[in-house]
Amino acid sequence: MELISVYTAIAQMRALTKEDKTFSFSFMSYSREKQKTHGIVTCNRATLRPAPKKNTSEYQDMMLHYVDDHGQNKHCWQPAIMTFQGIKCELK
Fold first, then answer.
1. In terms of residue numbers, what domain contains 57?
2. What is the CATH number of the domain that holds 17?
3. Ramachandran region of residue 40, left (φ > 0), alpha (ψ -120 to 50) or beta?
4. Predicted model pTM
């Protein structure tokens, strides 16, 4: 089974976004405020977006900001990324 580091996957996401290409990835959702998950989220045609300038959360460095399949601005926790382009991700 092929594995990729979460951080290598994020670097490749940035490179694809810079080339105006989309990518697929999945992650385990989690809301710190609600302490709740909605399970696995899969996005088939994502691109990265800059972090909001207004958000000065202490956790900002752990978040990945992206545009989903429907053009909506979303975010997820970087350590919660599970797959990138169908390849399983590991946190290392």
1. 3-90
2. 2.30.30.100
3. beta
4. 0.89
